[in-house]
Design goal:
- The protein is α/β, with parallel strands linked by helices.
- Helices cover 38% and strands 25% of the residues.
- The chain has 9 helices and 14 strands.
- The strands form 3 sheets. A 7-stranded mixed β-sheet has the order 9-10-11-8-12-7-13. The protein has a 5-stranded mixed β-sheet with strand order 4-3-5-14-6, with helices on one face. A two-stranded antiparallel ribbon has the order 1-2.
- Strand 1 and strand 2 form a beta hairpin.
- Helix 2 crosses helix 3.
- The two termini are 43 Å apart.
- 25% of the residues are buried.
């Protein structure tokens, strides 16, 4: 417990910018601050602060210790608050990070139900890129399974399994015909995900290739290419072609018949999994536990 108190004092020194200022906040003398910081450094075996006659600066080890302790300190405060109000509803601000389509099209339809069940939990929703998952500062990050997860730092919880499928508007299919086999896609206008112009044919058209669960693949022509899946969804709704995306994110459009499945038995991808990630810690705040339990229950039939 002594080291915890010393670490808390170190946190004040970093935030106040000097030992004298930290001493004033803690209502102790600067010499006591200096002595306790030295004891903390000795117990850790590293230098946390570089001292001069005029000021102190944080070392690389000190910066790492400070950032980690700030999170521990937050966990400690949440543990005290939750224990004190254990019989009450979970409270606090819960931060969720996820790619934009998962936030808007997968999570948002469920969050109204969650807020009705847990009205005292406020949600901070952050849009992030897939390659930034899991986000260090978020309570929970949600995205497609991360291939190289740092298991020493994060825990992954599977929420559901999903697949990509082929979809087009009824109007497009009425005008251009419905493909009967994978090879027929070569003759259709296709909406593809990607950056840049991709491979171009001798006619100057953008090319791409789609691969399916049973190993079959087809080279198709991109009528529209975009690095925004939302743009491709809107293009498909506007009868521009066939798109290959997760049904998970267009359930509303399929239900309303704005989009309809194409080759549903064979035009599907290998399975992917949606995961929730949180920072590995001795104590997981109750607000996080209830969200994880809620999401697992909502998506249980898809695991």
């Amino acid at each position: 417990m002594t080291n915890f108190k010393h670490a808390l004092l170190f946190k004040h020194v970093v935030e106040q910018g000097s030992m004298a200022s930290a001493a004033k906040v803690m209502n102790i003398t600067p010499s006591v601050v200096s002595k306790q910081i030295a004891e903390l450094e000795a117990s850790l075996g590293v230098q946390l602060l570089a001292r001069t006659t005029r000021n102190v600066t944080v070392t690389e080890d000190g910066a790492h210790f400070y950032q980690t302790f700030c999170q521990i300190g937050t966990d400690w405060e949440e543990l005290l608050a939750e224990t004190k109000h254990r019989k009450a509803q979970p409270t606090g601000v819960l931060s969720l990070a996820s790619p934009s389509l998962v936030l808007s099209r997968v999570l948002m339809p469920q969050l109204d139900i969650f807020r009705q069940q847990f009205p005292d939990i406020s949600l901070n929703l952050t849009n992030t890129n897939y390659d930034e998952i899991p986000v260090q500062g978020a309570d929970i990050s949600i995205a497609r399974e991360v291939e190289h997860l740092d298991a020493a730092m994060f825990v992954g919880v599977p929420l559901m399994t999903f697949q990509n499928g082929l979809f087009a508007s009824p109007s497009y299919l009425e005008t251009h015909g419905t493909p009967r086999r994978i090879a027929d896609l070569e003759q259709h206008q296709c909406l593809t995900y990607g950056v840049g112009n991709g491979k171009q044919s001798t006619e100057g058209k953008m090319g791409s290739e789609w691969t399916f669960e049973q190993g079959e693949s087809v080279k198709i022509t991109s009528a529209i290419r975009s690095d925004s899946t939302e743009v491709l969804i809107q293009a498909a709704i506007q009868h521009q072609g066939i798109v290959y995306i997760p049904r998970l994110i267009i359930q509303k459009e399929v239900h309303e018949k704005a989009l309809t499945p194409v080759l549903p038995d064979v035009g599907i991808s290998r399975p992917f999994r949606l995961f929730a990630y949180y920072r590995k810690q001795a104590y997981l705040p109750r607000k996080c536990r209830v969200m994880l339990d809620f999401l697992k229950a909502q998506y249980a039939q898809n695991i």
